[in-house]
């Protein structure tokens, strides 16, 4: 048995103990796996944490405010400011004074931002599909339904 096979066998038989009772641990483990592979694929793109999610939310919700975007991606307001500044600096998003409230800015993607987002999401889809393609359609529907339900509960408990 080579080192890789030994490591795989040891990892498969490793007991989680009380960690196995924690849904957050299980979710984090999967997120770490996806994130590591995505980070490797995106080396050199200058991505900061939360940038893709923020850009995707702006794209899906033209005119969203910075505070709404921050809340949706679970960023504090100062981190959101840095991300939106970076998106704007790179020409991926723009701020427009909101109608009726000049203190608020509406956020919009640019064509360059849409192209960058498409590239990012295409890479992420390939990474996720390697795992998700092994689930049945019903398993995937149940997983998504449960994750959405858990998120709804989290929001309700805030």
TrEMBL record:
SMART domains: HTH_MARR (SM00347). Residues 20-152 form the HTH marR-type domain. InterPro entries: HTH_MarR-typ, MarR/SlyA-like, WH-like_DNA-bd_sf, WH_DNA-bd_sf. Pfam families: MarR_2. PROSITE patterns: HTH_MARR_2. SUPFAM superfamilies: Winged helix' DNA-binding domain. This is MarR family transcriptional regulator.
